[in-house]
Amino acid sequence: MSDSLSASGVVNIAVLVFREGLECILVLAALTASFRGKESRYHRQIIGGVLLGVLATAITWIIAVRILNDISENVSALALQAGTGLLAIVVLLVVMNWFFHKMYWTGWISMHNRKKQELVTSSKAGNFWRPTLGMGFLGFTSFYREGFEVVLFLQSFRLRLGGKAVLGGVILGSVATAAVAILTFVIHHHLPYRRMLVVTGVMLAMVLLVMVGEEAQEMQLAGWLSTTHLPRLSEIIPGWAGLWFSVFPTVETLASQLVAGVLVFGSYFTARQLPGTAR
Questions:
Q1: pTM (2 decimals)?
Q2: What's the rounded Cα separation, in Å, for the pair 102 and 104?
Q3: Taking Cα atoms as reference points, which of 210, 150, 154 lies closest to residue 177?
Q4: How far apart are alpha carbons 70 and 65 in whole angstroms?
Q5: Are 101 and 273 in contact (CB under 8 A)?
Q6: What is the DSSP string of the chain?
Q7: Each residue of 200-240: pLDDT tens digit?
């Protein structure tokens, strides 16, 4: 494995981890924004739930690694990489689907806020355990939803690049997420979250195009996809384009990337025209 390929993978992993971390922060910020006075005690329950979410994500990672290791004993390495690559692309397509995010903002966050209000009301009525456990559960789901997606996505990178590259990307993305969390919850800075989401969304779209190119090539190597070479493009496309951006002179890889780009950017521009879009 070349150092350039490993570095590219680390950056791609860091972008996804930061993106998912940013969405988790926004959900938690929406949950805790109205806590004042006596309600400030709920911060502890939510933090406890987040920590449980971290633990559950780590356990999910161990389970996913063990399952793939067991499968690898009966499946060729190329086939396994191609299969996990498809899973990672599906995860990214969901993350990058702007219609999905409209539902996310109007449904997922609103549901958390409704549950929070119900729990606060229950506490005022003298019920102690229900709001305590409920707030912890809200913190747990806020984190674990994002953590589960990241675990699924990272399996393809682990198989291709190894555990060290994945760890490096996770650390880099987590540091960036922690910086935003500190600014949000400790220093109480009002950050341009929507712009940050759009910027990281564009970065993730580039990651998606790279992954689609890689996946199409792996499927060609595994014999799952035909290979139609474009000799003229071979003379034009430099070697580093394939290394960093997975742009290869074949009809199948370029067509796959074109379709992925149309799906993501078409979804974004169409969603912008809909009333009530959160982005």
A1: 0.79
A2: 5
A3: 150
A4: 9
A5: no
A6: --HHHHHHHHHHHHHHHHHHHHHHHHHHHHHHTT--GGGGGHHHHHHHHHHHHHHHHHHHHHHHHHHHHHHHTTS-HHHHHHHHHHHHHHHHHHHT-HHHHHHIIIIIIHHHHHHHHHHHHHHHTT--HHHHHHHHHHHHHHHHHHHHHHHHHHHHHHHHH-HHHHHHHHHHHHHHHHHHHIIIIIS-----HHHHHHHHHHHHHHHHHHHHHHHHHHHHHTTSS---B-HHHHHHS-HHHHHHH---SBHHHHHHHHHHHHHHHHHHHHHHTSTT---
A7: 888 888 888 888 998 898 888 888 899 999 988 888 888 77
Higher pLDDT, 83 or 127: 83
Token pair belonging to 67: 């399952």
Q: State the residue for tokens 């014999």.
A: 223
Domain regions of the chain by residue span = 3-272
Contact 162, 94 (CB under 8 A): no
Q: What is the tens place of the pLDDT at every residue in 21-77? A: 998 898 888 788 767 667 677 788 899 999 999 999 999 999 999 999 988 888 877
Q: How many CB atoms lie within 10 A of CB 154?
A: 25
Closest CA to 20 of 161, 176, 157: 176
